[in-house]
Amino acid sequence: MSVAPPGAPPAPGTIACPRCATVIGPDQDWCLACGAPARTRLVPTPNWRAPVALLALIATLAGIALAIAFVALTNDTEPAAPVNSQAPPPSATTTQPAAAAQPTAAPTTAAPQAGTTSAPGTATVEGGTTSAP
Q1: According to the model, what pLDDT value does residue 52 have?
Q2: Per-residue confidence at 126, pLDDT binned at 50, 70, 90?
Q3: Average pLDDT value over all residues in the chain
C-alpha cells in the first residue's frame, strides 16, 4: 500500500471510514484505525420485545382459560356448612325401609287402655304404640 501525498485524490476503489474518515483500501472490509465495518453490513441485533410480549399474552390467556375451566368443572354453588352445626352427620340420618317401620300385627280397633295416652298421629298396636308413617 502506498501513501499518497496530502491533497492528492484518493486511489481508485478506496473509501473513507464512516466513523473516523481514515482512507480504507479496496481490499479492506474493516477500518484499521477504529475497527468499524467499512464494506460489511452488520445485521442489527434481534428485537425480543415483541416475541416476549406475545409469549406473556399467551401464558396469561392460558391461565385465565384454566381458571375458568376449573370453576366450571367444580360447579360449587352450595354454601359451605358451618363448622359448629347442630345437624347430625350424614351417616347418622339413614332411614329404614318403609316395610320395617310398619307393624307386623294388625292394629286393633279397641280403645287405648286406661291410663295411657297416645300422641296425635300414632296408632295403638299390641304391646305398645308406634308412630304412623
Answers
A1: 95
A2: low
A3: 74
Q: Cell numbers at residue 62, please?
A: 392460558
All three cell numbers of 30, joined, read 474493516
Q: What is the pLDDT of residue 57?
A: 98
Which helix H or strand E contains 59, and what residues bound it?
Answer: helix 49-74
SS3 122: strand
Using only C-alpha atoms, what is the Rg of the chain?
50
Q: How far is 129 from 133, CA to CA, in rounded Å?
A: 13
Q: What's the whole-model pTM score?
A: 0.31
Helix, strand or coil for residue 81?
coil
Question: By C-alpha distance, which of 4, 24, 8, 25 is closest to 16?
Answer: 24
How far is Cα 124 from Cα 55, in angstroms, rounded to an integer? 79
Rounded Cα gap, residues 35 and 98, in angstroms: 101
DSSP tally for the chain: helices H, then strands E:
2, 4
Q: Mind listing the pLDDT tens digit for each residue in 74-105?
A: 887 777 777 775 665 566 555 655 555 555 66
Kindly report the backbone phi and psi dihedral angles of residue 98, in degrees, each rounded to the nearest multiple of 5, phi listed first.
-65, -35
